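Subject: for your reference before the review

Hello V.,

The reviewers asked for a structural picture of the protein, and I figured it would be easier to keep everything in one thread rather than splitting it across files. Below is the amino acid sequence we used in the manuscript, unchanged from the supplementary table.
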Amino acid sequence: AERIAAEGLTNIYVEGNKAVVLEINSETDFVAKNEEFKSLLDKVGSALLSSDAKTLEEANEVLVGEEKISDLIINATATIGERISFRRFELLTKNDDEVFGNYLHLGGKISSLLILSGNDEAVAKDVAMQVAAMRPKYISRDEVPAEEVEHEKSVLKEQALEEGKKEEFVDKIVEGRLGKFFEEICLLDQTFVKDSDLKVSAFLDNKNMKVLKMVRYEVGEGLEKRHDDFAEEVRSQLNN
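And here is what came back from the structure prediction:
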């Protein structure tokens, strides 16, 4: 249980108006590329897609055949010989007048799953690719917590003062630089990767579509990573 499992894969499964994105972790990238591991991911994803699980606790109780997902993970750990961890999932449901946008990058190292109003799947995929590539944390500025904005303002103010800017101009400078901050973290404020003349908001307006929900998973984000020194490991084995 103490061993670090920060590698692995994400994947997306879609059936009708339901879609699920999930992440299962392993200790090494080598195991994540194994067909047995990919099969495990598929089994868990398919089972979740047929469920109404809302929490990880509920998801672990979902049956795959006659076996709970939690037992499936324990058995995979025993079979593969590495710690396997079902880290997270999100199950989304859309309406008939909405569309899923989904995109896998680097074979599942990054997954993005969106719900958009409208029915243009090509547009939905383009926006999903944007999310995978540019890592927005929020759809729009309205979603950014006030404390996060205030923290950024204080950092920018301190920077401006350290640069020798006059106190009376600092607030305007901060407001200008805050725009760059929103461009980094808000999808609608970002420059559209397929057309640098457009913001994502303008691209969507042109297509008469809106992003209603956005999920982006990157394998191992926020987890402590292994930092193995292979040469040191060999030396320690030789000294035993």
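For the response letter, the relevant points are probably these. The longest strand covers residues 7-15. The longest helix spans residues 167-185.

Happy to draft the paragraph if you're swamped.

O.
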